């Protein structure tokens, strides 16, 4: 039943027709509980509040299914506008983005052009830019683009998904590059990805230890308190300094744990999504954990 629910919401997340229709539904599905508004000002207000609790942030202007060059260019311009806002508001915040939003599905040259403009602006401001990982069909191109960008820009990194068979090999190949490590949120076939939760959890712990032992900055993105406790124990036993890693969680989920980890002195960052194109992101969050469905419906009926 759990897999059926997960597959259902993952299917919905990739349905472009529903994605367009969802914008008419507003926030009644409960998205307002996990998405920090539709514009930059709303996102900056959320970031400022989190900063007051000692929590760092990364903001992501949501957008998917970009197949028009002009739309990709506008997305890049909006990313730069977001960087400007981070500086003007003087908040502790990075930028996250997806390459498909910047033209990856149109032409890699367009995507590279947009990324270089964004990274140039971010480097001037001293802001780190995280390239979010998407489904496996975009995975090889994302790794390739990252490697090319790193030749010129040291203020960027990406995400490695623990459910992929090649995750450990890619972590090794990207030694020295700041990585966000996650379990993985897309439905992938057995040929490329582990299917059992226990196998994914074990590989997640493995690549976390691997990247930390390589002396590379590691963002551990999970709401799984069992994983978090294992990481705490590992870094303590191996004298790994706290400035070599951070914990990350999503905006709106397990909020008290955000504050607790920050209060315990761990570097902590909240992933703050915003924008009108929230549908795909929200559906993937519902797919990840059955509890999230109840969470969403609670938001729906409280309207």
TrEMBL record:
Annotated residues that bind substrate are located at: 98, 284-285
The record ties this protein, via InterPro entries, to: FAD-linked_oxidoreductase-like, PRODH_bac_arc, Proline_DH_dom, Proline_oxidase
Q: How is the cofactor bound?
A: Binds 1 FAD per subunit.
Start and end of every Proline dehydrogenase domain?
43-294
Q: Which reaction does it catalyse?
A: L-proline + a quinone = (S)-1-pyrroline-5-carboxylate + a quinol + H(+)
Top EC class of this enzyme = oxidoreductase
Fetch the Pfam families from UniProt. Pro_dh
Q: What is this protein called?
A: proline dehydrogenase
Stated EC number for the protein is: 1.5.5.2
Organism for this UniProt entry = Alteribacillus bidgolensis
Q: MF terms per GO, please? A: nucleotide binding; proline dehydrogenase activity
Q: Which keywords describe this protein according to UniProt?
A: FAD, Flavoprotein, Nucleotide-binding, Oxidoreductase, Proline metabolism
**Which pathway does it operate in?**
Amino-acid degradation; L-proline degradation into L-glutamate; L-glutamate from L-proline: step 1/2
The organism's place on the tree of life at top rank: Bacteria
What Gene Ontology terms for biological process does this UniProt record contain? L-proline catabolic process to L-glutamate
Q: Where is FAD bound in this sequence? A: 133, 161, 183-185, 197, 222-223
> Could you say which cofactors this protein requires?
FAD
């Amino acid at each position: 039943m759990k897999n059926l629910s997960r597959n259902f919401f993952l299917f919905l997340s990739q349905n472009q027709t529903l994605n367009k229709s969802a914008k008419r539904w507003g926030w009644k599905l409960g998205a307002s509980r996990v998405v920090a508004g539709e514009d930059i000002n709303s996102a900056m207000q959320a970031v400022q509040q989190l900063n007051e609790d000692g929590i760092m942030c990364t903001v992501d202007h949501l957008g998917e299914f970009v197949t028009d060059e002009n739309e990709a260019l506008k997305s890049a311009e909006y990313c730069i506008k977001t960087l400007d806002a981070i500086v003007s508001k003087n908040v502790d915040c990075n930028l996250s983005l997806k390459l498909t939003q910047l033209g990856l599905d149109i032409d890699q040259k367009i995507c590279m052009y947009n990324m270089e403009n964004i990274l140039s602006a971010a480097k001037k401001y001293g802001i780190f830019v995280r390239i979010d990982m998407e489904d496996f069909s975009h995975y090889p191109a994302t790794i390739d683009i990252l490697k090319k960008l790193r030749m010129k820009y040291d203020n960027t990194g990406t995400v490695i998904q623990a459910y992929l068979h090649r995750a450990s090999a890619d972590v090794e190949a990207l030694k020295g590059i700041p990585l966000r490590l996650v379990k993985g949120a897309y439905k992938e076939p057995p040929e490329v990805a582990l299917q059992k939760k226990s196998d994914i959890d074990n590989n997640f712990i493995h690549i976390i230890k691997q990247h930390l032992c390589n002396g590379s900055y590691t963002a551990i993105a999970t709401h799984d308190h069992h994983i978090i406790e294992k990481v705490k124990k590992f870094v303590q036993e191996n004298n790994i300094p706290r400035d070599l890693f951070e914990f990350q969680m999503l905006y709106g989920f397990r909020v008290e744990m955000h504050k607790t980890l920050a209060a315990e002195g761990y570097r902590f960052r909240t992933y703050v999504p915003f924008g009108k194109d929230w549908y795909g992101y929200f559906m993937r969050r519902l797919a990840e954990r059955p509890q999230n469905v109840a969470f969403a419906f609670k938001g729906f009926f409280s309207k």
